[in-house]
Structures are given as C-alpha cells and as structure tokens.
From TrEMBL:
This is LacI family DNA-binding transcriptional regulator. PANTHER family: LACI-RELATED TRANSCRIPTIONAL REPRESSOR, TRANSCRIPTIONAL REGULATORY PROTEIN. It comes from the Bacteria. Keywords: DNA-binding. It comes from Nonomuraea phyllanthi. The lineage of its organism: Bacteria, Bacillati, Actinomycetota, Actinomycetes, Streptosporangiales. GO terms for molecular function: DNA-binding transcription factor activity; transcription cis-regulatory region binding.
Amino acid sequence: MTLQQVATAAGVSLATASRVLNGSARVRPELRDRVEAAASELAYTPNAHAQALVRASWQTVGIISHDVSDPYFSGIARGAMRAAAERDLPVMMASTFRDPEREIAYISMLRAQRARAILLIGSGFEDRRWERAMDAELGPYLSAGGRVAVVSRHRSLRVDTVLPQNRQGAAALARSLLSLGHRRFAVLSGPARLSTVVDRVGGFQRALAEAGVPAAEVVEAPFSREGGHRATTALLSRGLDSTCLFATTDVMAVGALAALREHGVRVPEDVSLAGFDDISVVRDLTPPLTTVALPLEEMGERVVALALRDHSRGRRRIERMAGTVVLRASTARLPAPQ
C-alpha cells in the first residue's frame, strides 16, 4: 500500500496526506480525519526511514555568519544556538569569510535541505548583483514557508531584522572622544562594501562634522586582527598625526594595539585607541579597551525569536539594539591647550 493510494482514497493531495501521516499541524481537521480513516481502512504502514527524513526536514535552523571564529559572530551565534536548543531545534552553522558567492551557495544548500529557518548574521554587501542573487534564492524559499531573519542591515531583504544601531553608536563614541579633548582622528576601517562599515564610519564622521572637527583619516583593511595591525602599521609608516584611533571592530583594535606596541607607541600616553562591539577579551587587554558595547548574545536570541514567530500578519519587524559607550583606560583625556 502506498501513500498515493491513501491520498486518492481520502480525496486529498499527496502533500496533504504526507503532512497528516507525518504529524504536521498545518492541516484542517476534516481533511485529517479523512486521511486517517483511509490509512486505517487500507492498513497503510509508513516507511520508517522516509518518515524520519521528512521529520528532519523543516526542523533545522541554519546560521550563516561571516566568520564564527570572530568573537562578535560567535557571541551572537551562542545566543542563537541557546534559543534554538530551548525549542529543541538542531542548528547547522557555516562561515562565509565575507565571500558573497559562498553566502549564496550556503543559502541554496539550506533551501535544498528544507531548513525551517535561515539566519544571516552579519552585514549585507553594498552590491546590487549580490542583492539580486539573494532575492532569487530567498524568494522561493519564503514562498514555500521558510523563515528568514537577519542581524545587521540588509537593504534589499524585506525580512525580520535585528538591527544594531551602528551609526548611532559610532556617533556617540565620537562625541565621547571629543569630550576628552581629541580633535585629530584616524579610522581603521573594514571593507567599504560592508553595510556595517558604512554605518560605523559614517556615524563617526558625521559627529565630527557636527562638532566642526576635520574628518578622520580612513585606512581600509580586512575586518580582522590582521587588518587592524596592517592599517595601523600603514599609519605609523607615514607618520602618525592623530591623537586617537577608532577601529571599527574590536578585533581590529586588538591588532592595532599589537602594532603600536611593536613600534614603541604607548596607549594611551602617546595615542588613544577605541573599538566597537565589546567582545569579552577587550576587558582583559593592557590597557582595557574603550568601545561601544552591543548585547551580542541577546541579539542572537532575538533573531531566532523573530524567525520563528507567528508570521500570519505578514508584517516585517525590525528590532533595534542600541550600543553603549564604555570608556576604559585605552583612551585618555588630553591636557587643555595653554
């Protein structure tokens, strides 16, 4: 006896019969009764292996991040995995290493495996071609009942979003550094095609402009410890004129601190240093790092809740997560001009 014969006897589609016999709640009661009666009358026995495969489908949560070894992403992923575990949902995790093509490939794979939800952790790319490719992958997945939620700004994706307030946090940091007397800044920036970088650099520069202070010098490098080291070394090689460096992520600030020490530049006596994110390690640096603290684990918990919420009303939801400036010993007040 086959599932198709049960569906025919019940007068329903094969998909409806499959949902009923695999325990799905998304079937009207009268249809459920018909399928169960037909299965009983025909003595239908489901294939245990096939049934297990179906149950596995639409249960997995896929997490795609730029680099799970980066403490920023691992902090968010930790919160997301805890939230998924509380709902008894297994998690698949992948790192794209900021490669847009790899990100698209992972989404395609999760679609094929019928993941219940896809979570994108990390900024979108300022790239129209990537946006079109994302739409082509996620549109059919969403239409088929899949769920998508993201952390950070993805201009083209009309899905539920946990949005860290990067622009506002960077502006608040700039104002705090200005209050310490700094007027000459350099920014250690990640790739300009990342929306997070655009927002953090833009917020910082705007606050300087509003205060009538010259724009910071921007040095672009990879969004990593090595990138921070490289950008700082480049600044030092041409003569460091700034009194304060702003690294657009804490991991870049860690690399910057190492480069400054290698060149005999003291922090904060010779130059102040600030970062963004408040990953756990920066409190243990010498000196501890001034930064903008984001609630990373809470962001992970919230993106899971958004992905799995009731979408019957069809409204997109955006949850904004504010950053808090935390002044530590890596930044010093400049003496007042004589």
